[in-house]
Amino acid sequence: MKRTKGRLTMLCVSLAGVLALTACGGQANEGQNSQTGSSESAKTKTIYIYQNKIEIDKALKKTAEAYTALHPDIQFSIESVSDNFSTGLKTKLASGELPDVFTVLGNQDLKLWQSQLEDLTDQPWTKDMIPLAKEGITGDDGKVYGLPVSVEGYGYVYNKKLFQQAGISKVPVTLTELKQDVESLKSAGIQPLVGAYMDWYQAGNFLVNMGIARQKDPLAFIKGLYDGTATFVGNEIFKEVADFIQYDFANGKNGLSTNFNNQTTQLVNGEIAMTLGGNWLQPTIDNGNASLETGLMPLPVNDNPEENDKLYAGVSGYWAINKDSNVKKEVKDFFNWLVTTPEGQTHMTKDMQLIPGFSSFSADNETIGDLGADLSRYLKEGKVYGSYNSYYPDGVAQAFGEAVQRFVAGQVDKDGFLQELQNEWDRLAE
Amino acid sequence: MKKKKKYNMLWGNLLFLGPSTLVFLAVVVIPFAISIIYSFSNWNGISNEIKFVGLNNFNNIFSGKAKFLDAFWFTLRITAVSVLLINLLGILLAVALTARLPLRNPFRAAFYLPQTMGGLILGFIWQFIFIAGFPAIGDKLNLGFFTQQWLGTEKTAFAALVIVNVWQNAGYVMVIMIAALSGISSELIESAKVDGSRPLNTFLRIKLPLCVPYITVSLFWTISSALKMFETNVSLTKGGPYGSTTSMALNIYNDAFANNKYGLATAEALVFFVIILAITSVQLYMSKRKESQIL
Fold first, then answer.
1. Signal sequence: where (chain A) (predicted)?
2. Does residue A269 share a domain with residue A396?
3. Mutate which of A1, A198, A200, A202 to disrupt the B interface (most B C-beta within 10 Å)?
4. What is the phi/psi pair of residue A338, to 5°?
5. B147 to chain A: nearest residue by CA?
6. What pTM does this model have?
């Protein structure tokens, strides 16, 4: 009997060991998780932010510090991830550690996450959101679920000095002008273009969006794609865009083995005259080569200057609040401070160099840099097409990107390419 | 008295097997059962609504609608090529490094080293080599072989994955085979020598057959790890160009996390499980039979 008792004790000890192990695993996360963090001490509360703009990570942390200085009882834990952001978020959801604040991309992504989000309609700043920003984060129930982080736009980022060297005095606004400029760059011995076709990201998101945004009524076109009344196949606008993609690829160098890092390096080192990009490149340029003068110019696909002298812009993401968070009120206060007080606004526009999705304050032309200033000018003049990636079915952007890769590699012709866009849409939309 | 012993045995079993059985149930059996349930649904991985769609997911897989078959075909091809090369190279290295060479041990360590690095990091390093390193060498030496767009075309991207896989895993097979070769009794080899057997003959007729159990292990390990290839794939080619190098595991990951088709992805994962089970069992059965024939 004594032996049995001894074994029983051992069993208990080993079970306790297992429990202790799992408990340790839980504790490791406490620093990040406000839900457990707040129970530790009643005074300090931690707001856990998980967001996808890696380039504002430092500035955001600085802003958070400034807020903590004003409100000593609020601490922040900020995690910025760009690649695999959504995978990380889903993993956090599955393990019951959904952050207090996280990025939602709007539209389709909003539908996906809506059941987890706090309704922010009654917040004072929602009335100041510009329409472009508001429509993306308004659910079917008419409620607003997030705070627009930034308006972002893209076109060709061009190197002003190389343009001068090639004797180009103004940016091209028609396809013919673009082709002439490419030729003069080439004869000056300058690599005119480079495209990051190795990643599906730019091709699938930015290039294909051109075709959709240039439709007469893009939203109606997308609706038509969903219900089968519209199609990519034989669409004249998409044919022009396909020709443009082919032209861009053909005048670039090693497109299919150039990735985003590579492309950015070449731009920052002043090795290329133009490349697809947007105002989000500004912090990277400032860090890498502050003397580089760049600008943002249109992507002309035909010879009608009015149709082509436009950039593409949209809201890149929204910060939404987890409806089960313990610090909802604190986060709302923080959001209010950020977008309604002059101090918070300065952090948004000066430190994080964002172009706000609000009418109540605007970007600071001195700090947002060349690219932001160009975008801001086009926005003011109303010369922008929208960005519609967030309306696609999940996974379509990647499938589109792969279709573009197959097209530029010569695996399919123009008609085959459009057919493929259609097939991928149909496959993933159901 | 006998009864009491049995009673004690029960406690002993519970003590030693209980915790591990509990853990096994919690982290293997139950998730597996749950994933079978999900595979009949159209769950997107997040929402609270789950609709059951019967065999729809499996239909999509086998009708080719879900791209799983493409990924399967790619995985089969790359498994065949890399398993062959990994084992050949591993055996060759083992033979070379059991000979009396100077610096034998540093060489062993060097060839084993890639195995100790994570596949993700290897992929990123090799991506840099293929994109920036090779072209730089090619430009200097004027060799077209190096300047081609390694990750930009279907064939070279396939080759690139094979190169990295072989480089990463040959060292592991080498270690197993070194153990095998140095375990062979030297008397046997000497008597073969006395009988006039030449080195090549000794190797093919005596050493290799004696190593068959080890070769079984190497084959099993390389086949199952090649079929499950994921990290190198994700970090080196991301499945590109145009999805031509998407392995089964990467395809499942994409469906689950990028396309938000969690139900479909779990169905694919089940098929994936059955395929790996089938292939590795056949391989084990055949090499075991070979072993019993020889030994």
1. 1-28
2. yes
3. A198
4. -65, -40
5. A254
6. 0.79
